[in-house]
Amino acid sequence: MEIDQHKNKFGSQAENYTKYRRPYMSEVYDLLFSLVPEDSKRILDIACGTGKSTEPLLRSGLAVDGVDIDPLMIDEAKGQAKVKNLDITYAVSEVEHLPYEDGSFDVVTVGTAFHWFVNETAMNEIKRVLKKDGLLFVYWTLTTKDVPEEDAIPAAIFREFNWEKVPSELRDLEYISSFFKEQDMQNVSTERLPFTHNDSVEDQVGLMKTASSYEVLPEEDKERFIAAIQAALTEQLGSRPYFIYEEEIQVCYGYR
Fold this sequence. Notes:
Number of strands: 7
Strand content: 25-35%
Number of domains: 1
Shape: globular
Strand order of the largest sheet: 3-2-1-4-5-7-6
Low-confidence stretches: none
CATH topology: Rossmann fold
CATH class: Alpha Beta
Order of helices and strands: HHHEEHEEHEHHEHHHE
Oligomer: single chain
Radius of gyration: 18 Å
């Protein structure tokens, strides 16, 4: 997978992102706020997308900023904030060139996006905008129990469309933890927060549309891909009301 080709391919699916990407469970934010340094005033959510990971930060009483590389995602996030009357400041920016002064933030968070910028340049920029002893808190969702074969999208469909996946190491707790330590983050720790959720065929198809690998498909293949997975999942679901998936939020955090 060419990371640079994928990381800014979400904007055209911003509305689907709002509709089909699940909110993060409250336990993620319970953990986050238990770690936030005392007297913190400002928090930055990097790669905020449409605000799914940003909006829950408001419960902390901190001033909340969100940035994303894709202007269409930021437009959607701003629209959501306006409709919900949320006081969040959003900006378009890539993580390697953040538009903030040194030490602007007490906390930086990244939700299911750190795999797009696991590199020294991005980490140096994150550390630059973090105050001394500031918290970096990254997390992502992974399926922890193999989906039963009869419920999975057939691998042959992914092979037919040359579907690309994020390298597994970039979503591996040990790898990310080691990277944090290599970048001189202090008191690095990890957590796993399991959960179960139910999805319909529509939920799963909509979720697939929000993947960068869908957006890089040739236009003539997108409709065929969606039709193929919709047919396969409909057959596999049968008379059941929904699929049941076991997943977990994996968290890595450390201090500057």
